[in-house]
């Protein structure tokens, strides 16, 4: 594959101004031959020349020479950087090599966003120690919930390494990502052999490329490996033979992959094997692996996505939303130091609106990290525009009330609340081997945004949007405003035309694109809206499933009462009559009708706005996105009409405005 | 694959009594070296020895010798036979070789059903000239809507020929089948090349084996062959290049396959190419192929399954049920003599209850044949017991009122009504390479039954059931009664727990097993129930879509009025309030509740009855069926509860008997 066969995303380095000098480099405390430093210098040269036309020379002197002085500052924290531009050049300080690399990318970002080199200035330290991407890439090349082509890591059960691999690492480093899990959490078939000789050489090669950009490689693990690739008949985590098997296996892994980060494990979930099979706890499983990997400095990331996926829809007492808390809270405090629980933002599964998982901050003595999904599984398949950063921000800003201060999710998962070092954020990535990496060019804003947000959770959604627009398209002001507004409106619009007020689902089973109001209503997945001719919603109060009581008192009280429950989550927590009066003065049913008509109309507004950008957005990008807007309009119309028809047919209550409902 | 790896179905030839003689053969007017006659003699020897212990010897004489005298009788009609047993043996008369073969199978059948050889007697002529099986087998080995394993004709794009092939032909001939289409009507990929050198040798070999049992081989055709396997850029049936291409192709086919029967064509249907693409009529397409194949004595079977499969669910004027009639009636009288239209029994698609297609008998100057589906696509996937012969009988017995006499569907499709020679019945077969051929051992009753019924449409469902039970299991009287009753009850039971009163669908999309009441309600397939909080059903009267008016006056009037419309089809023709009073004195809604509770309970009754047969049914068969009954009970419960919950939640009207609805 040739370089021109894929885009450079936000590292497209538009010419921002014509510089008049050259750059000379000075390093103090860092070794220019170290891989990460070499990458930093390479990026600076490449970026600066593209952005300003100024070259960086090995030996330069004269009045037109600016200096980039990179020096070590032991007062700074891990991976942080300070830089300051002046007429003489730029000084960049960092404690470590990653700090240097991130500093260089930040300098380039500021220039791409409009500053001159002598104006750049920033002091930054990452909010989160772990900033990770999770690939759900399968070794046959397919991607679970991938909407951007096939995998660029795997094809026909082989690992692909080419120029694209390096560009991928560059992009990730440029937004501060320092860990990547390369394979799907559902580890089957060939993927079980990633920790064997069959793949070590190639994994090592990949790991080395990542290493040049300060990124550690992680693997998803098959908990049943002792059975599937070993010759044991058990994977009981307390069985001595199993422990010995893992000890030997992990030694083998680290003999071959010195800088290996560790394992991500999906156990006892949706058919995956796990400790429960042997009557063990999740902690038993995670701690065993943690102990085995500890001597090598590795970590175990244990997913909390454990629930009964063979529920009887008739059963209204069992509540999937409760499952994570029910399974993991009891063992709070028993997880070992190099084990971290990875918790999805909500208690269900990446719906367009969910409350924050009560496990986040509920756990008070356990390393925990936040998992979000950039891949738009339930949010439009990278066809529909849905800028997800505002959703992530809501989650991060949520006060768990786990303490009187430092109680937001951002505090908890960064380690600030508990003072723990193992903490952070992970995202299910939305990339594939499509030319533009993310299917919809605009979906790259989510990829960029997650990285930036995980590095700095204080950034606003709008700041991130503007940064991304400037670096990607370098648009004139008017067009920047249009595109920025499109991004910022998009999540609410998607929510309006899909499932109302936090109830979620109502989506086509399996595929998860397009409406099917009852699609998950009589299923085994624990995903019900319980609509009848009088009302809709799940009673998760103390009179219902008791889910609301999994929160700390303040939140539990708020959610428990439909009058204080935030209305965007009303149907998640309460079964509400269609005639219930919302704070807007509309009935619930009229709200459903109105929001669906509005959502569809506003989606058309997005498409109209996009048309205004014709000519300033490169034609190829413009056309790709335009094509998707046409599909989004079909989708929005289908959602609008199916949802409205469903409720009209069920309730018999007409739209007050007399619009067409079928 | 070894012989023991598959069962002998109804040719299992249980020992019925111990005969005391030997058999000698005498032929008059038939050549014992002809393939079909050899098969007949082979079957007689094998069957008679197994059933009675009596051998058939080349040279036999003495007082214990019975004679089988086979003689030609030119007074008999095609494929018919007369036989009569006596103390001296059996005389069998026929006009042609197929008649001899069918006569032999009939003799064996009568003995297997309890007669002694000296008591056998029958005069039979086939009701239908064409008695065909349509395989939906794909060349990768998969079977579209197959529930009995993979194909035994194809594997990895190669044709399989082994001992099983011959047994298949024997089974088909034993019930009078004289035509088999070996490949799926959706012709794609490798299947397009069945009419090329790549496969001719193997197709020839298969055709020869079929020929030994009086069966002609047919192929499904890709209408776009001139483009896909030729080098033309069109398949317009009126284009001279296209006609020339077909002339050469068909010559090539007949050069290689002398006894080839002809082509089955699915055109302009569900994404398949066809004449409409070029603004041509269905008749244009069919007649062109008919003319090309005529010199070789071949025929073109043209399916009438043409409808708009991208309908907007919002559109209540378009009615898929109308489509077949709308597309094909206009051209009545224009189809050539060697073209025959193959018409599904109902206007939709093999639902558990549909009215008879108005095309059947509506067409008065066109060869037409009836298509039914033995494969249980919508009738339980050969998991649920559903003996379909009663349904086929209803269709055959239906008075179309196309004339004052000979107006039943049986009359029309047999050729009796119009006096046409090209006429008959076809079925989508339910076989696969499972050991027992049909997944569920009891589903073989449908396979057997279709063959028998197509040969003799006067047989009753019960007669066929008893024949099949006797030959397959040879049960004691009490157990025969139990199993016979199970079969005869099963279709009504399946109907009770699935979709009510002819409305159909309500099935899981794509898979077509299990309930999803709204699964097809907002789809593009033209399959809607239009349920709201007050009622359900599709208005197909003169005030609605006008479908009812496609029937002859007597039927149109009957269907048009909800008071005279047969209640089992009430919701197919009318939108009816839940409070509507049925003739039983129940409301529509209470009928829905009651029939679903009853259906589930009666399904349990079937399973209980099956348990009574433990010990008399061979263990392996018993276990296979038992396992399926357990699944059927889950399915019946799921249908009961989802359908009842759906209507209760929508209508708000409780069950009068206070049973649990969720």
Task: Describe the overall structure.
In chain A, strands 7-10-11-12-13-14-15-16 form an eight-stranded parallel barrel. The first copy, chain A, has a six-stranded mixed sheet with strand order 2-1-3-5-4-6. Chain A has a two-stranded antiparallel ribbon with strand order 8-9. The radius of gyration of chain A is 25 Å and the shape is globular. Chain A contains 17 helices and 18 strands. The longest helix of chain A has 33 residues. In chain A, helix 4 links the parallel strand 10 and strand 11. The first copy, chain A, is α/β, with parallel strands linked by helices and 662 residues long. The mean pLDDT of chain A is 97.
Question: What are the defining features of this structure?
Answer:
homodimer; 662 residues; alpha/beta; eight-stranded parallel barrel; six-stranded mixed β-sheet
Give the gist of this structure:
The structure is a homodimer of 662-residue chains. Chain A has 662 residues and is an alpha/beta fold.
SSE layout:
Two copies of one chain form a homodimer.
Chain A: E1 22-28, H1 35-52, E2 56-57, E3 65-72, E4 81-86, E5 89-94, H2 97-112, E6 121-124, E7 130-134, E8 154-155, E9 158-159, H3 163-174, E10 179-181, H4 197-212, E11 216-221, H5 225-228, H6 240-256, E12 262-265, H7 282-293, E13 299-303, H8 323-328, E14 339-344, E15 368-373, H9 389-397, H10 409-414, E16 424-428, H11 444-455, H12 461-473, H13 477-497, E17 535-536, H14 553-560, H15 570-573, E18 576-577, H16 588-611, H17 619-651
Parallel strand pairs in A: 1-2, 1-3, 3-5, 7-10, 7-16, 10-11, 11-12, 12-13, 13-14, 14-15, 15-16
Antiparallel strand pairs in A: 4-5, 4-6, 8-9, 17-18
Helix pairs in contact in A: 1-2, 6-7, 11-12, 12-13, 13-16, 16-17
């Amino acid at each position: 594959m040739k370089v021109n066969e894929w885009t450079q995303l936000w590292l497209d380095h538009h010419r921002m101004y014509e510089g008049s000098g050259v750059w000379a480099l000075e390093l103090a405390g860092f070794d220019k031959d170290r891989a990460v430093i070499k990458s930093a210098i390479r990026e600076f040269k490449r970026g600066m020349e593209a952005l300003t036309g100024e070259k960086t020379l090995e030996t330069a002197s004269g009045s037109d020479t600016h200096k980039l002085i990179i020096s070590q500052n032991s007062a700074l924290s891990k991976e942080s950087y300070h830089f300051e531009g002046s007429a003489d050049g730029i000084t960049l300080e960092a404690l470590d090599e990653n700090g240097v690399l991130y500093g260089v990318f930040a300098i380039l970002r500021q220039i791409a966003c409009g500053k001159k080199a002598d104006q750049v200035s920033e002091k930054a330290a990452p909010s989160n120690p772990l900033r990770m991407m999770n690939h759900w890439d399968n070794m046959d090349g397919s991607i679970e919930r991938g909407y951007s082509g096939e995998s660029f890591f795997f094809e026909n059960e082989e690992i692909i390494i080419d120029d694209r691999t390096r560009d991928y690492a560059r992009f990730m480093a440029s937004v501060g990502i320092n860990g990547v899990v390369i394979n799907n959490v559902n580890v089957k078939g060939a993927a079980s052999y990633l920790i064997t000789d069959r793949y070590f050489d190639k994994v090592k090669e990949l790991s080395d490329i990542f290493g040049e950009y300060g990124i550690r490689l992680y693997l998803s693990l098959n908990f049943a490996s002792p059975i599937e690739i070993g010759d044991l008949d058990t994977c009981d985590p307390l069985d001595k033979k199993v422990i010995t098997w893992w000890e030997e296996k992990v030694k083998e892994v680290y003999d071959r992959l010195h800088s290996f980060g560790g394992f991500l494990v999906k156990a006892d979930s949706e058919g995956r094997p796990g400790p429960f099979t042997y009557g063990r706890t999740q902690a038993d499983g995670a701690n065993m692996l943690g102990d085995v990997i500890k001597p090598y400095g590795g970590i175990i990331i244990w997913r909390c996505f454990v629930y009964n996926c063979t529920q009887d829809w008739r059963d209204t007492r069992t509540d999937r939303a409760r499952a994570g808390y029910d399974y993991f809270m009891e063992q709070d405090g028993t997880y070992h130091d190099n084990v971290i629980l990875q918790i999805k933002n909500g208690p269900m599964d990446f719906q367009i609106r969910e409350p924050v998982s009560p496990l986040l901050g509920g756990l008070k003595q356990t390393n925990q990290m936040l998992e979000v999904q950039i891949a738009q599984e339930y949010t439009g398949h990278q066809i529909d525009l849905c800028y997800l950063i505002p959703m992530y921000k809501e989650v991060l800003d949520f006060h768990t009330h786990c303490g009187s201060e430092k109680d937001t999710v951002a505090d908890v998962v960064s380690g600030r609340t508990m003072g723990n070092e193992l903490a952070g954020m992970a995202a299910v990535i939305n990339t594939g081997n499509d030319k533009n990496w993310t299917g919809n060019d605009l979906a790259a804003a989510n990829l960029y945004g997650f990285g930036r947000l995980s590095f700095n959770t204080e950034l606003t959604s709008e700041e991130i949007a503007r940064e991304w627009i400037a670096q990607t398209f370098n648009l004139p002001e008017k067009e920047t405003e249009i595109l920025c507004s499109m991004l910022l409106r998009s999540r609410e619009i998607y929510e309006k035309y899909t499932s109302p007020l936090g109830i979620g689902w109502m989506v086509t089973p399996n595929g998860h694109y397009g409406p099917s109001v009852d699609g998950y209503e009589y299923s085994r997945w624990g995903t019900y809206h319980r609509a009848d001719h009088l009302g809709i919603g799940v009673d998760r109060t103390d009179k219902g499933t008791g889910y609301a009581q999994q929160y700390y008192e303040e939140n539990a009280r708020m959610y428990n009462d439909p009058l204080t429950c935030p209305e965007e989550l009303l149907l998640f927590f309460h079964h509400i009559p269609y005639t219930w009066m919302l704070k807007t003065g509309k009935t619930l049913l009229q709200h459903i009708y109105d929001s669906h008509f509005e959502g569809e109309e506003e989606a058309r507004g997005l498409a109209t706005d996009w048309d205004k950008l014709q000519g300033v957005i490169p034609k190829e990008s413009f056309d790709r996105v335009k094509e998707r807007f046409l599909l989004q309009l079909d989708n929005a119309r289908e959602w609008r009409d199916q949802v409205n028809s469903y409720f009209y047919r069920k309730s018999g209550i007409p739209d007050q405005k007399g619009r067409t409902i079928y």
